[in-house]
């Protein structure tokens, strides 16, 4: 009988256990949330053991309190949090506690409880949750009940580790998604500050934390971007000294707020927790970012947290590296443009002061300085020849720069780098660039000019800035040298044009004053020639005097064309008749000359006095450079009046034709034969013809003869 009862009891007990296990399993299937799971089983357990209360506690933050997270009760409930001490501490330490007789303090068991059993749910060797089953009567729990409860606790532990794995996996996925979103947003950023701000905003939003980014500026970390949650009153400090932080910045891993010493920790995190992640760019420490959260991101598994923030840091590093490269490229392009503009400006300036002023402005804008000046040695002091902004000389004087002493060029022994940017005043806030020696002074190893650049802030100029100033300095030095040369050239030009003027005046005076007496001689010669029978001597005197008159006329016109040019007194004339008159006069009705006149009168507008020279010259040349007949034809061709003078004389070598119309241009055959001539006749003729908008051309074959053609535009009516 007894055996049967025992078997029955065991069977009942086993069926209760399997029911309980089935319930745990079912719960687990329904939900993978830990709290839901625990809430689901308390009522089942309470009912199965006919207990008055079944409660699950969870270890609270800081481990000082336990929090009720699931409760099934037939009577009064428990307060939400209970101190984690006494029996409860033992249970969370891993013990199962059977309380047949409760002490007075029965908080974990509930009011009215007379007996109880408490057992931990062990997950991965650690207790986060514990269950207490309590009874209002002083019952003694059977061993079998305790056994069943142990089996139950074991299974709940397994179920909890499942949910934990699941939750962790879910959390990881969430983190990966957050990371992806941050990276995606960073991809659209260009500038360093934009990257930092977008990063802070996105991280704060994604993780529900405060986020600030810092960059290293000398001995300090300066805040560049920050994003705080609405609920946050704390603001991370905007400037933090490096010394205490450096050991953490040099780590590859993110550092937990708790590990930092109090000084930087408080400034960065206040009372909260979080992480500090160092940032490197191109292998060099660049700064750090800080993520701050009240819970200190406690719910994250430590290894997940490390991996996550390290990855986040690498993505930010990549974005920053790109932004840096982008900004550098942008700056280079701007610099190139500024330097090119400076070069263009140099070309457009011929005066020192405006040029120096403009270059000072360029220098200031290149390196974001407030004031610049150019000093130049004047023989006994350096004087300012151009400037931008105010007060740089005072700064210079205060720094001990002696403008009355001529500076020495650095010795060649100075290192290349030092020579590249010779800073005479090695103070923060300003830089002095010596400009290469100028053309006006080629003696000694001294420096003639300086470009001085000053900032109102006591910053040191960056290497890039110095390089740029050096390049601008080279341009400026070149400009100064050019200006020197330009001035020297101007002086030489002035001297030259003065002496030219004198020469022209002299020539004009001579030509003019020669003509008077010569005309008188000519007059007497003509009288003599008419009175007596022609004597050879008088004829020779007459011819040579005529030549002298022509020469003096040529000289006068030459002087006029060289200096101010000449004016024309135009009138409408019959070109044929005009040519005929000129030819008769110049050939003295020589039988060698035939004139072919046009059928209709050909009218032109011209300065007859001047144009006579052209006709005289061409006809005289034809007579001079030939011995046979000369044919002069006048005709109209299209809208032009033409005069052609042909001879069968010595001709002109083909390759010398273009030189005949230049000043003093003579053909080699004329020289060889010793035919007298000055080589200015055709040059002057061309000037006169050009002034009439006419043309003069020559066709010639050596030893056969030449043909000179002069054309003029017909009057409008005629054309
Ligand atoms: P000039 O006759 O006083 O030397 P021109 O200027 O009138 O100076 O002529 C320039 C040169 O052109 C002459 O020296 C001569 O060599 C050449 N020349 C001009 N006309 C003729 C011509 N009809 N036949 C050959 N050579 C000529």
Protein architecture, described:
The chain has 719 residues and is α+β, with helices and mostly antiparallel strands. The chain has four domains: 11-171, GAF domain (Beta-Lactamase, 2-Layer Sandwich); 188-328, GAF domain (Beta-Lactamase, 2-Layer Sandwich), CATH 3.30.450; 366-540, Beta-Lactamase; 567-713, Histidine kinase-like ATPase, C-terminal domain (Heat Shock Protein 90, 2-Layer Sandwich), CATH 3.30.565. 47% of the residues lie in helices and 21% in strands. The chain is built from 17 helices and 23 strands. Strands 3-2-1-6-5-4 form a six-stranded antiparallel β-sheet, sandwiched between helices. It has a six-stranded antiparallel β-sheet with strand order 9-8-7-12-11-10, sandwiched between helices. The chain has a five-stranded mixed β-sheet with strand order 18-20-21-23-22. A hairpin with a 5-residue loop joins strand 1 and strand 2. It is rod-shaped and about 190 Å long. Bound molecules: adenosine-5'-diphosphate. Residues 617, 621-622, 625, 647, 649-652, 660, 665-667, 670, 677-683, 706 line the site of adenosine-5'-diphosphate.
């Amino acid at each position: 009988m007894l055996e049967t009862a025992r078997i029955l009891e065991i069977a009942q007990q086993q069926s209760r256990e399997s029911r309980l296990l089935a319930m745990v399993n079912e719960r687990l299937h329904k939900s993978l949330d830990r709290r839901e799971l625990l809430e689901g089983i308390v009522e089942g357990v309470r009912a199965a053991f006919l207990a008055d209360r079944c409660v699950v506690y969870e270890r609270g933050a800081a481990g000082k309190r336990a929090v009720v997270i699931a409760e099934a009760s037939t009577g009064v409930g428990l307060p939400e949090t209970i101190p984690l001490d006494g029996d409860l501490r033992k249970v969370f330490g891993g013990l199962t506690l059977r309380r047949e007789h409760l002490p007075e303090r029965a908080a974990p068991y509930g009011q009215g409880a007379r007996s109880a059993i408490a057992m931990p749910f062990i997950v991965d060797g650690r207790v986060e949750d514990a269950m207490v089953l309590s009874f209002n009567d002083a019952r003694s729990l059977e061993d079998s009940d305790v056994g069943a409860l142990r089996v139950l606790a074991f299974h709940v532990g397994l179920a909890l580790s499942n949910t934990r794995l699941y939750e962790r996996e879910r959390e990881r996925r969430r983190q990966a998604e957050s990371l992806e979103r941050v990276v995606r947003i960073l991809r659209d950023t260009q500038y360093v500050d934009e990257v930092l701000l977008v990063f802070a905003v996105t991280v704060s939003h994604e993780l529900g934390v405060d986020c600030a980014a810092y960059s290293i500026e000398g001995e300090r970390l300066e805040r560049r971007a920050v994003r705080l949650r609405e609920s946050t009153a704390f603001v991370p400090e905007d400037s933090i000294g490096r010394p205490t932080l450096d050991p953490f910045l040099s780590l590859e891993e993110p550092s937990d707020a708790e590990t930092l010493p109090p000084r930087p920790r408080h400034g960065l995190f206040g009372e909260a927790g979080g992480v500090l992640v160092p940032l490197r760019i191109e292998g060099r420490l660049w700064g750090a970012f800080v993520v701050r959260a009240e819970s200190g991101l406690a719910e994250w598994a430590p290894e997940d947290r490390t991996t996550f923030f390290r990855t986040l840091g690498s993505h930010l590093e990549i974005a920053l590296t790109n932004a840096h490269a982008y900004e550098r490229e942008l700056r280079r392009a701007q610099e190139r443009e500024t330097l090119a503009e400076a070069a263009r400006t140099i070309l457009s300036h011929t005066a020192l002061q405006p040029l120096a002023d403009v270059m000072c402005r360029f220098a200031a804008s290149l390196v974001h300085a407030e004031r610049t000046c150019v000093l130049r040695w004047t023989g006994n002091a350096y004087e300012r020849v151009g400037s931008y902004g105010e007060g740089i000389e005072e700064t210079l004087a205060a720094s001990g720069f002696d403008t009355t002493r001529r500076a020495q060029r650095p010795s060649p022994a100075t290192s290349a780098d030092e020579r590249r940017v010779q800073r005479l005043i090695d103070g923060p806030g300003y830089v002095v660039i010596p400009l290469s020696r100028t053309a006006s002074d080629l003696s000694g190893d001294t420096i003639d000019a300086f470009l001085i650049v000053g900032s109102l802030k006591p910053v040191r100029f960056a290497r890039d800035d110095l390089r740029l100033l050096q390049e601008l300095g080279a341009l400026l030095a070149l400009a100064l040298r050019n200006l020197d040369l330009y001035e020297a050239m101007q002086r030489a030009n002035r001297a030259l044009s003065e002496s030219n003027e004198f020469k022209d005046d002299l020539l004009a005076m001579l030509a003019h004053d020669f003509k008077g007496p010569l005309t008188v001689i000519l007059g007497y010669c003509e009288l003599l020639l008419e009175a007596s029978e022609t004597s050879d001597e008088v004829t020779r005197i007459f011819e040579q005097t005529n030549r002298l008159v022509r020469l003096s006329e040529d000289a006068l016109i030459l002087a006029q064309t060289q200096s101010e040019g000449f004016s024309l007194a135009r009138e409408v004339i019959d070109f044929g008749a005009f040519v005929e008159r000129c030819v008769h006069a110049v050939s003295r009705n020589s039988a060698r000359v035939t004139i072919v006149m046009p059928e209709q009168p050909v009218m032109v507008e011209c300065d007859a006095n001047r144009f006579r020279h052209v006709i005289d010259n061409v006809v005289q040349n034809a007579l001079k450079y030939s011995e046979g007949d000369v044919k002069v034809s006048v005709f109209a061709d299209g809208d032009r009046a033409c005069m052609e003078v042909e001879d069968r004389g010595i001709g002109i070598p083909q390759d010398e034709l273009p030189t005949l119309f230049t000043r003093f241009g003579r053909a080699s055959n004329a020289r060889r034969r010793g035919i007298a001539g000055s080589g200015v006749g055709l040059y002057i003729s061309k000037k006169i013809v050009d002034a009439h908008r006419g043309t003069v051309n020559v066709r010639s074959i050596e030893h056969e003869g030449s043909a000179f053609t002069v054309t003029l535009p017909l009057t409008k009516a005629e054309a």
